[in-house]
Amino acid sequence: MENTSSDRDEPALMHPTDAEIASGRGSRSYAPTLTKDFVTERHRAYSSFPLRDSSVIDHPIFGWLRRDDALLLYEMAFFTPGNILEFGTHRGLSSSVMSEALTDAGKDYIIHTLEINREYLSDAKQSHLKAGLTNIRYHTGDAAKKVKRFLKKNKKFGFVFVDHSHRYDPTRIVCESLSDLMIDGGFAVFHDYVDRRNFDEDDHEYNVVKAIRDALPSHFIFRRISGCCALFQCQGDRLNAKRTARPGYPPTPGELV
Description:
Elements: H1 10-13, H2 18-22, H3 41-45, E1 51-52, E2 56-57, H4 67-78, E3 84-87, H5 93-105, E4 111-115, H6 118-131, E5 136-140, H7 143-152, E6 157-162, H8 168-181, E7 182-190, H9 208-215, E8 220-226, E9 229-234
Parallel strand pairs: 3-4, 3-6, 4-5, 6-7
Antiparallel strand pairs: 1-2, 7-9, 8-9
């Protein structure tokens, strides 16, 4: 998949500084990555979707997606080269956006969504059933154990959305597994990457940025920020990819880090 971004969205392509994230200035507006415009009218509709609390979309399925988050998820799902893996179903909002995109793209890929909270998963199933979304498979339990099962079965995914626990260890475990889980050229999106709580020493629930810096293999290339999400692409030399802390991070766009 070719990156067709233009210079007009340069701020989104530049990685925000730690100071910007810590002060709540790390968010960026959505701009297409793999196309030059909205891919469907449904995609376009998310750019003006009604808001709740002036920040997140007021969708029939409760969740915490900004317009720019939903726009990115829809685009990535629309162009995915394979099945989708979601860490953190919650009540099913993000998986519904991705499910719609797969349907609109005419693809028969499946979304595998993982959730540790059985109540949330039950709510998601009911919401998806009501909306007629049938391309989603549900998995409950610890994400790390589920990942091991996927790896044992040699499952590969074209797009991965990470939005379960924002703590260091759960995020680190996902990062360490992504290389073996993903198709070359596929994309991974980390939600709440630019949340200011990642740099609040008193908040131990958010440590997404540090986990990615320490554990995401070096052939994952930073592509852009959209809303509170960070987009990385799996690309390059897997065999020689380093799984160690990466000096010189944050990267410049398109640069192996």
